Amino acid sequence: MKQALAVLLIFFSVQVIAQQELQLTLDDCLEKALSDNRQLELKGLEMEFQRQQIAGQKRFFVPEINAYARYYQYLDDRPVFIFPQNINPELSGPVQLGGAQNFYSGITLNQHLFNVRMLNGNKLSNYMDELAEKRQQMSEDEIRFEVIRTFYQIEMVGDGLSLLDFNRERLEKMERVTKTAVDNEAVLPITLEELALHKEELEISRQEIENRKRQLEDYMKFLCGIETETRISLVAGGTETEPALMDVNDSVSNNELELLQLQMRMNEEKILQETAGSYPSLDFFMAFEWLQQEGMGDLFSSGSTWFNQHMIGLQLSIPLLNPNNRKSKIQENRINQEMLSVQQDLLEEKIRMERAAARRDVQLSRERLDLSERRVDVYKRQFQQETIRYEQEFSTLKEALEAEDNLRTAQMEMSRRKMDYFLSILELYRTYGNLESFNKVK
């Protein structure tokens, strides 16, 4: 009965652990990172904030409704009074040219019919939409680059752990051979202690690599929006197939450059918009007013008379003096445009340099990887020879351990060179703005 309960407990424990562990392929990581990443969410909110600022330029098509109150006094020496009863007793509204003191209150509706800013506002809004889309692509490319790089690094670290396990097995085999081959009781303890030191060194290296792996996995969880407590396991296979080299071209274009060009076009529209403030504008208006005027009872008293009137018409506005100093803003935008133009030239040169450096790095990292593979092959044959000689007592333990150290160092170096080569190809895709197709052409 106790054995059955123990088996059930182990079974359920394994099931719980399996449920808590999340297995992810590279495509899974990319999908989660592009949908759940908090950095992308923040970028989206920032762009929405900027879009709302530009969206105000479209509101010229929306009518304005305002309530207002106005009190004024004429400066004429003898204000002219014209009241309805002086003209026609049947009239119900004031037609006065003005009393000495007047008080108005009412509601007015204004609708822009023509304003040059309306056209610029639409263009700015459209450019902002394009800008938001381009920045979204750039943000996604940044996340995509980090996810792919981290995925490869985790896989390479896993390969390093496998190499350490294999080296540990080799040392254990040498330990067994030593116990049977060394008959000298005085020499045997020292020899075994030397082997134990090598095994301890391997264990320390393993702990360092495992710590590095945990750090990379935590970073991957952060990128993918996965809770820190969740265990993840990456489905291997990404490093077994060499990424395909993309076809390169001499065209200087990527998302960063296109974003800068969009900003330049937006700045041109801002210059036109500020200039548009000096052009006349035509508005349609409607108003409903309540009026008190001097001569029809004391103002603001219970005995005063209120009149109401309705108005409809067109209003042509011609700017004469603008306190917003539009010339200064126009000059600022023009200077900014010149700065963006210089930045474009510098960015194009930077792109050319980065792409040339990336192509050279791919070539050099490939050569280093080939060299490290040949070195591993040589040290592997040397280690096999030294192992056989040691088993046959033709060489010392020191020589066998040196051969094992050389092979282990060469294998770890080859693993690093392989990662460098893969990441150099990834960097090449990044410089050409083609990261989206990286994991699709492997």
Structure in words:
The protein has 442 residues and is α+β, with helices and mostly antiparallel strands. It folds into two domains: 18-62 and 115-279 and 319-440, Outer membrane efflux proteins (OEP) (Up-down Bundle); 63-114 and 280-318, Outer membrane efflux proteins (OEP) (Single Sheet). Helix content is 63%, strand content 13%. It has nine helices and six strands. It has helices spanning 2-20, 26-36, 38-55, 84-87, 116-181, 187-224, 255-276, 326-391, 397-431, and strands at 21-24, 64-73, 101-114, 231-234, 281-293, 307-317. The strands form two sheets. The chain has a four-stranded antiparallel β-sheet, with no helix packed on it. A two-stranded parallel ribbon has the order 1-4. The longest helix is centred in the middle third of the chain and has 66 residues, at 116-181. 19% of the residues are buried.
Quaternary organisation: single chain
Q: Helix share of residues?
A: 55-70%
Assign the CATH architecture of the largest domain. Up-down Bundle
Q: How far apart are the first and last residues' alpha carbons, in Å?
A: 54 Å
> Looking across the biggest beta sheet, what order are the strands in?
2-3-5-6
Strand content: 5-15%
Number of domains: 2
Kindly provide the radius of gyration, computed on alpha-carbon positions and rounded to a whole number of angstroms: 40 Å
User: What is the arithmetic mean of pLDDT?
Assistant: 72
CATH class of the largest domain: Mainly Alpha
Largest sheet: 4 strands, antiparallel
Instruction: Please write the string of helix (H) and strand (E) elements.
Output: HEHHEHEHHEHEEHH
User: In terms of per-residue confidence, which ranges show pLDDT below 50 for 5 or more consecutive residues?
Assistant: 11-19, 94-98
